Amino acid sequence: MSHLKLSGISKSYGQFNALEAVDLDIAKGEFVTFLGPSGSGKTTTLMIIAGFESATSGQVEIENKSLFGLAPYQRNIGIVFQNYGLFPHKTAAQNVYFPLQMRGVKKAEGLRKAEEMLELVGLKGFGHRHPKELSGGQQQRVALARALVFEPSLLLLDEPLGALDKNLREQMQIEIKRIQRALGVTTIFVTHDQSEAMSMSDRIVVFEKGRIQQVATPLELYHRPQTRFVASFIGESNLIDVKITDAAKREARNDAIGAIQYAPSNRPPTGSEATLMIRPENIKLSRNPVEGRHNVRMKVETIINYGDNALVVGKVGEQMMRVRVLGADVVIIKEGEECCISWLHDSVYLIAK
Amino acid sequence: MGNCIARLTERKNLWPWLLLAPLAIYMAVFFLVPLIDVAIMSVTEPRPTLANYQRVLTGSLYLRVFLNTFITAATVTFACLLVGYPLAYLMANSKPRTATLILLLVTMSFWTSFLVRTYAWMVLLGNNGPIVWLLQTLGVQQPPQLLFTRFSSTLAMVHILAPYMVMNIYSVMRKIDPVLIRSAESLGAKGLALFRHVYLPLTAPGIANGSVLVFVICLGFYVTPVLLGSPREQMVAGLIGNQIDEFLAFGMGSAMAMVLLVVTLAILTIYHRRFGLDKLWG
Ligand SMILES: Nc1ncnc2c1ncn2[C@@H]1O[C@H](COP(=O)(O)OP(=O)(O)O)[C@@H](O)[C@H]1O
Ligand SMILES: [Mg+2]
């Protein structure tokens, strides 16, 4: 039973299609992230849901009721914009009281609720401050409190952490999740940062060029990307273009690497083109071939050491390969040397063209 | 002073000051020196006493003129606000082409000398002017006296000063982050409530700026009230003019000018404490 339902949403600006046939179901209480590069249509989708933009076609429903014709102020949807949108002439408490005031809640009761909400977001005692007397993270919390205090049917967050530095971002990611769970509010969170999406979401919706590429849980998205774009956008990956030589035996061929076997898959028939994905951490680096694994020789070009792990970049023929190794393992080779890389057939994932 | 210059040179900051020098010298010679002269005259003409100030501050005629000046300035300011706010809103919220057109119309009156505009009102409102004619044609038996009344001078001053109000409010409206309005809408605000709780407070600095500017200019307005206003309802500047070119009472005129100056400076100081004067100029 879906809480929010988008069906066939398209949006064009003149000749340009910002969104094409977007379908999406979101369950009550779910935390869904819109992930995609800048310009892929995330904000446009959000603004259509909120009622600030109208779709060229398609419809938005909440609890099976169409939102068609409802103005933003009638939709009961909480939004946090990237630069917070706090009213500079109102204190934090007055900002949070505002949506209640608009709903005719009496001042004493409204301000009490506002204080409660500020306490929930960790700003007890900050109610009397004006936005400019608060840090970026604190303003963020006020904006969150304000978008939640009127018990919206949906919470929309458009790149809310974009303006914060790294430490604060991580702290706010945890905070937002905590608050969202505490209230159980259905949430759409927009970001272009894949690690943010991975760590926070129940499900991720990947956007590219106005289309939904895939909707899946973070783990599914990581291990079973459906398109080459998703595979390259989420995490690091080695993408190898191949031709299927024997679909029954799950064999494919790449010019540089030769024959490769891939994990069970029911997709392309023999003779078709496809892409194989191997995650860098599933490749093992050694001096000599390892039994039971698929071994190939690689010429090491660059080693980037991160302390606890290292990224080894090299070439197998013309094919660039990246290997993630634990810190200690990297000692066995130097840049410019040849070595052996190996993987299990099960970690070779096939993506149809 | 020498110390100060030394420090400026040291910081290589002297250039901007040098560039300002011609203006500073000009202001000193043509503004500061005459002003000091006026201040001196106010306590020396005809005799070196404070009698002029005593008369200005206690004489009922003078107090009435000062009061009248304030009432007129307040009326003009309020009328400018009533006219200017919607215009500024229209300008800030319409398509670029429409906005440019309105901007052009508003600033057009800046390009015309206000003397010319004052005479234009004399023609329009005169006894043989088009407005009286229109009223007569519409069947008004005895058209009211329009020219040389408080009405005509106020109307002309509003016309002349409204652009200052519009530009001040417009510049603040332009800078309002649209996200604030969207936020307000998403939080359930619409129409009048949105205006009262969000838009109006956000534009308040523009209203304050525009009002102070119009009010202060109005306090010292000379030509328009003298040419268009009722001789029985003079404003301070007109009265000062009278003192000097009719009664040759340079001392009294100077004392009134000084009082006007002090009042104006007092208003600007209070405003500066509250909002910061720099904002007045954009
Ligand atoms: N008002 C508009 N007019 C024309 N093009 C627009 C407008 N708004 C957005 N777009 C275009 O639509 C595409 C999607 O934009 P947006 O939804 O903001 O992307 P995202 O939020 O994913 O970065 C972009 O290419 C953008 O340039
Ligand atoms: Mg965006």
UniProtKB/TrEMBL annotation, chain A:
GO terms for molecular function: ATP binding; ATP hydrolysis activity; transmembrane transporter activity. One of its GO terms (cellular component) is ATP-binding cassette (ABC) transporter complex. One of its GO terms (biological process) is quaternary ammonium group transport. Keywords: ATP-binding, Nucleotide-binding, Transport. Residues 4-234 form the ABC transporter domain. Gene3D superfamilies: 2.40.50.100, P-loop containing nucleotide triphosphate hydrolases. InterPro entries: AAA+_ATPase, ABC_SmlMolc_Importer, ABC_transporter-like_ATP-bd, ABC_transporter-like_CS, Mo/tungstate-bd_C_term_dom, P-loop_NTPase, Transp-assoc_OB_typ2. Belongs to the ABC transporter superfamily. This is Polyamine ABC transporter ATP-binding protein.
TrEMBL record, chain B:
One of its GO terms (biological process) is transmembrane transport. Residues 66-271 form the ABC transmembrane type-1 domain. GO terms for cellular component: plasma membrane. SUPFAM superfamilies: MetI-like (SSF161098). The chain crosses the membrane at residues 17-41, 61-89, 101-126, 146-166, 206-228, 248-271. InterPro entries: MetI-like, MetI-like_sf. The keyword Transmembrane applies. The keyword Cell inner membrane does not apply. It is found in: Cell membrane. Keywords: Cell membrane, Membrane, Transmembrane, Transmembrane helix, Transport. It is a multi-pass membrane protein. Belongs to the binding-protein-dependent transport system permease family. CysTW subfamily. PANTHER family: ABC TRANSPORTER PERMEASE PROTEIN, INNER MEMBRANE ABC TRANSPORTER PERMEASE PROTEIN YDCU-RELATED-RELATED. This is ABC transporter permease. It comes from Pseudaminobacter soli (ex Li et al. 2025).
